[in-house]
Amino acid sequence: MPSKRTVISLFSGAMGLDLGLEAAGFKTAVTVETNSYAVKTIKLNRPKLPVIPYTIEDVTAKQLLEKARLKKGEVCLVSGGPCCQSFSTAGKRGSLADTRGGLFREFTRIVAETKPRFFVMENVKGILSAAVKHRTLNDRGPGTPPLEPNEELGSALRVILQELSELGYYVIFGLLNCADYGVPQIRRRVIFIGSRDGEEIYLPKPTHVQNPTNGELPWVTLREAIGDLKGPNPEAIRFSDRDRKLLKMVKEGENWSHLPSQFQEEALGAAFKSWGGRSGFCRRLRWDKPAPTLTTSPVGRATTLCHPTRLRPLTTREYAVLQQFPPNWKFEGSATQKYIQIGNAVPTGLGKVIGNMLNDVIKNTKRNGLPVKASKRKGLVVCADPVLEKSLKKQPRTQLHPPRLLKSSDPAKIRQWLNAVPRQKQQFEKD
Question: What is the 8-class DSSP label of residue 130?
């Protein structure tokens, strides 16, 4: 008899999501991962766990089911986070036009071909506002061609929701902050959860809050997580001499904006003349708050993660603790490769609360049978996060430069340009 809670893990990385699900009682049956160092990490810690080291495009459902020793429909859960760089708010933001952005289609292909009872797909917050086709800021506004429907903010999400609906699963999604579940990190991720049989899935309820008022648990701070962390020869990459010079002038909780004015342009580089969020430049962390989102490098110019009081970035061990990996979990590769594996992972605490939610659903179905609405839910995609749903409905069509940087700052011409193409609607419904 196959296990009732077996997992096929796609885009497994260093197994952060898998470890969280396992803490909730699930069992990873097979993993798929192409990064050679992550593959070595999996084999180092789980030598008996099957690993398929191929690109997902070259992996078949038959291979996965054979490795997991299961048949179609016997898998409890397919989980994973398709490569998310193209949906990030940083970089070129290729979205679905980027081959990495289209990897979610490989995820849905595996779901369609293995028919698991549930699926869990994780991605970055940027997936909510990504366009199918990205247009640079300099090419938007009066004096440029009208905005096309697939260049609107949120057009990629519309495609994703439509394709999830075509699976025939009942799907819910929402934006979860890992800090709300006891993770010592403010890390917001979009979670899609699907039920093949239309079971009453839901988003995990928060266990921690930023400002407790009625006996709730407070967010876990950086100090609580790594303040007493000790160990020989901490492993970390080094800041450049320029960054060290600037960070010496920055106190705990400060960033480039607290530098003397004559050093601010040096800290920001080309971003000095830009606008928008630049809080990660030349940044020192605060002991009394959770860490910000861990990136794949703590020395990135726009994503600096400097220790609150020491002149160094967070170490690889501190990274692992903030992502809640077990103390005995080992990572293969250089420090740089370890940062990439850990920074790309899903915090294990988030995986655990999702696993616990699925456990409750399984028990409820076993006790009461399928809900009356089960068959009607199939193919339905629901935003289960009221705050997010409201935000999506108010999402602007695009983002423009400030008027001073546009070819024309005339409000009437800006409105005319924006209204040149009818606004598209979001493709989700409310149950």
Answer: -
